[in-house]
Write a structure and sequence with these properties.
The chain has twelve helices and 18 strands. By secondary structure, the protein is of the alpha/beta class. Strands 1, 10, 11, 12, 13, 14, 15, 16, 17 and 18 form a ten-stranded mixed β-sheet that branches. An eight-stranded parallel β-barrel has the order 2-3-4-5-6-7-8-9. A hairpin with a 2-residue loop joins strand 16 and strand 17. Helix 3 packs across helix 4. The site of pyridoxal-5'-phosphate (PLP) has 13 residues, from helix 9 and strand 9.
């Protein structure tokens, strides 16, 4: 049975990205693959096993629920770290299964100790510090209380990590703020070490921090967007690839992006029809034909994550050519102007994101049109679109 569209996940592209990132972080640093948001839309159950096949054995999720999903498809040697929500009654599951988690408030710290005592098993915790993001993390005034409590209960705790998160390492406008965060983090880790609390991993860096502030790499990095083949933003791309871009212009060679998108999104033409000049297409009056046009219907709509804001502007590839969405994006369908692709017919492959012949549609160009970030567009890809892993 043909689903209306499907996502292809390329193992070769992932392997390429991991190799590039390994080169950037060095060989001794732990690479934690961030798979929150359903592995940025790629599908936890599809992505995790191929990441393991490429040598990854540490995964970061947001919630205990995602941790459970990851634990069901991971192999024995892989670690899971929860960076966000875990209810007090889920702590028991996490501790039993050796899942480590961020602790950023006293209530969770106390509940952790209580649960670990009951289970007679150490909890693996990451003390998450507030350094200027102002979302969560222990404030500087709390640190003495935290240290005292942690030391008193060290029988029940493993100091897996001390962490923080940066407030916009992708943009130079945040330079001072991020630099201040790095300084505060280092000071506070030193302070903890003087108190006799030495974490196994000091970890602070997301993709943008790895790429723009190499001093944040430390013992472990938490990389999401870059492993999926996307630069965190255009500025980070330019900053990192400036020399390569100049070289490729001077040598008249094709610029080869070291990060390759691992995801493609494909569908098929379901119907082709001709419409006379001067007709409105689809609901209402948003599109008027100006010539005799050939239109293809594709079974993709906003219900599948193809944003309604791509109405009349989105592009897709058919027979290696770019073609435009005409009229509103419907719940389950779009109309594409294929007047200039005379051989287009029912059953033709339609590429919404990815390559076809020599052309390519990137999530970035897609999201620039509709003002979404890569992150948002990816994570909004519905979980019920079939995902297919390809070599
Ligand atoms: C999402 C997240 C990351 C990864 O961010 P990317 O920009 O995708 O690399 C790292 N750390 C924390 C705490 C996160 O929430």
């Amino acid at each position: 049975m043909f689903e209306s569209s499907y996502l292809e996940i390329s193992k070769t592209a992932l392997k390429n990205n991991l190799k590039y990132l390994r080169g950037r972080i060095g060989k001794d640093v732990v690479f934690s693959s961030v798979i929150k948001g359903n592995a940025y839309g790629h599908g936890i159950e599809h992505f995790l096993p191929i990441a393991e096949q490429c040598g990854v054995n540490h995964f970061s999720v947001f919630s205990a629920h995602e941790a459970l999903r990851a634990s069901r498809c991971k192999s024995k040697g892989s670690d899971i770290m929860i960076m966000g929500v875990i209810e007090n009654d889920e702590l028991e599951w996490a501790i039993r299964h050796n899942v480590s988690f961020f602790v950023f408030e006293m209530d969770r710290l106390k509940a952790t100790v209580k649960t670990a005592r009951k289970l007679k098993k150490k909890a693996r915790i990451h003390l998450h510090l507030e350094t200027g993001f102002h979302r969560m993390g222990f404030e500087s005034e709390q640190l003495q209380e935290v240290a005292n409590y942690v030391k008193k209960n060290q029988k029940y705790l493993e100091y897996e990590g001390i962490s923080t998160h940066y407030a916009g390492a992708e943009g130079v406008e945040n330079y001072l703020r991020v630099k201040t965060q790095i300084e505060r983090y280092n000071e506070r880790v030193n302070w903890f070490e003087n108190e006799g609390i030495s974490p196994k991993y000091r970890h602070t860096a997301c993709s943008a921090a790895v790429l723009n502030y190499p001093e944040t790499i430390m013992d472990m990095v938490r990389v999401g967007i870059a492993q999926y083949g996307f630069w965190p933003n255009q500025e980070t791309f330019m900053k990192n690839m400036k020399n390569e871009l100049i070289e490729s212009v001077q040598n008249k060679t094709q610029f080869d992006d070291p990060l390759k998108r691992i995801l493609s999104w494909k569908s098929k033409v379901m119907n082709v029809k001709e419409v006379d000049a001067g007709e409105f297409v689809g609901y209402g009056t948003s599109y008027l034909t100006t010539r005799k046009e050939k239109l293809a219907a594709v079974p993709i709509g906003y219900a599948h994550g193809f944003s309604r804001s791509l109405s009349n502007i989105g592009k897709v590839l058919i027979r290696g050519k770019r073609a435009r969405v005409v009229g509103f994006v419907n719940m389950n369908a779009i109309m594409i102007d294929v007047t200039d692709i005379p051989h287009a017919r029912k059953g033709d492959e339609v590429v919404l994101i990815g390559n076809q012949k020599k052309d390519s549609i990137s999530v970035a160009s897609f999201s620039e049109l509709s003002n979404h970030l890569n992150y948002e567009l990816l994570t909004r890809l519905p979980s019920n679109i079939p995902r297919i892993v390809v070599e």
